[in-house]
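REQUEST FORM: STRUCTURE PREDICTION
Request ID: SP-0412
Submitted by: Lab K.M.
Chain count: 1
Length (residues): 123
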Amino acid sequence: LNRTLVGDHPLRIEGEVQAFQHFGEQSHTELTGSLVLRFSPTSRFSIAVIEGVSYATSLPPIEVEKNDRQANLLNYLSLEAEYVPTTNWAIVGRIHHRSGVNGFFSGVKRGSNAYLFGIRYQF
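STATUS: Completed
RESULT:
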C-alpha cells in the first residue's frame, strides 16, 4: 500500500507499507514500513529511493549464514524504477536491501539483497 504524503509531479514523498512472502532460499514473511522519495521526469517513468524498517517473521537463512549477529527488525533500503504504460498499471523493478546499518540495528553489521520485478495496480 502506498500513498502520496507531500508533493506532486515531478517530486513527491510517499508513505508505504508492504507484506510479502519470500520463496526459495528465503522462505519467510516480511513486513516493511517506509518513506519513498519519488522523482517522475515524465508521467510514464519514475525512480525512487525508499527508506524504512523491515521485520522478518523468522530469521532469513541467507542472513544467518552471512552474519555473526542477526535480528528480525532491520533497516530497509530500496531503489526502484517504474514504467507506467497505461493509466492504472505499472511495471516495477526494485533492489531490496535489509541491513543492520553497520551495527546500528541490534549489532548486525551486514544484511541481504533481493531483486524484485512486478506489476503494480494503482487504485
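NOTES: The first helix runs from residue 61 to 66.
Reviewed by: T.R.
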